[in-house]
Amino acid sequence: MTEVRERQQQNTQTGQDTLVRARIALGYLVLVAVLGLFLRWLMVSPVDGVNYKNFLHAHSHVALLGWLYCSFFAALLYIFPAITGAARKSFQRQFFLTQVSVLGMLYTFPVQGYALFSIIFSTMHILLSYWFARSYWQHVQLNVDTGTHATSLKYIGAALLFMVVSSIGPWAMGPIMAKGTIGGELYYSAIYFYLHFQYNGWFTFAVLGLLFWFLEHHQLYFNRSGAMRAFWWLALACLPAYALSVLWTQPAEWVYAIGYVAVALQVVGGYYLFKVIAQVWPETKPLLQPWVHGLIGLALLFLVLKLALQTASAFPYMADLAYKLRYFIIGYLHLSLLGFVSLFVLGFLLQQGLYRLGRYGGIGLTLFLAGFFATEMLMFGQGTLLWLGLAALPSFNWLMLWASVPMPLGLILFFLGQRGLIVSGEGRLSESGFTGF
Fold first, then answer.
1. How many domains does the chain have?
2. Labelling 77: which of 207, 260, 393, 411 has CA 20 to 30 A away?
3. Is 241 inside a domain boundary?
4. pLDDT tens, 332-360?
């Protein structure tokens, strides 16, 4: 009886930790949306003493290192929870220190931009990510059935590896800035190195790892050999695909050739991936809540669009066009971050009961999606008009401001609806008898 009681207490603590992490991550998403709206306001009505670029740094860092890093931290420890008390305490310390670094960046970037203290907090986050990658991988190797979860673990392992690789970009920026070449090709190439392996490596492979874990967890049959073919093609494509991020510099012909090879590998990997998903989708769909089905479906659609845009960017004309018309780049980054990764994460955590709709959650998500679609249409629409030599949309910044308003409002409604979730003695999250499992 004592062992059973201790196990129940451990499960309850593990579930509580996961719930807190998921809620904190969602809080960061709300902050990201509010900061985004503030940036839109600065575009139409600049405020004396407020540096737009500094707030942009805060917005992007909290989006990547607050919302997404913390949500994946929560999700990965949800699917493969820590077993021992020592491991739980280690991950608790890691998550607490991560909050120190994220909140530090949230405060210092608006005040000073890239300077001593903001660099200290961002460096702290990189070191913490190393700690998490190492300890999490050791944990799953020791405590997870690698046969049952062979596919998801492959993707998750690659995700953690790409997260570590992405940090080469920030480390390189120190010497680059020391040489006084801020704003040059080398400076932006280091930034794009980081973004490429975050977006196309860490985030993408983490999403796919969670997707295959869900299939494995529910013992749904899927073509494992096809999933592994997709893994190897996409993983091999990720490395040379960095070339696509530097085509704006108009490099040598061999760099363009590497880009062509990368998109070819990526197309093959995408073919195998969506073939596997299409085969298992009829059995997966009935297991999903209605809102989750919609969010996951949209996320997969945006993954297709993301791959298509990357493929197009391999061609010199399109690469040069994207560089000249920044609306396309901003639209692509938001499509990847919000449309693909964020919608999937929201759907996954909602399905598992870590988030709930509540009374106004559906309205909140509807507003968020409406704002996202409206801003994407405006950005890609404005870029297309300028590309075709037609008249630009009048009062574009005002239109973007008003189109962005529903996003923070919707997320605030969704966030406020998270109260009431509790952890039962078995470690499951419930609310008035509802269970997400």
1. 1
2. 411
3. no
4. 999 999 999 999 999 999 999 999 988 88
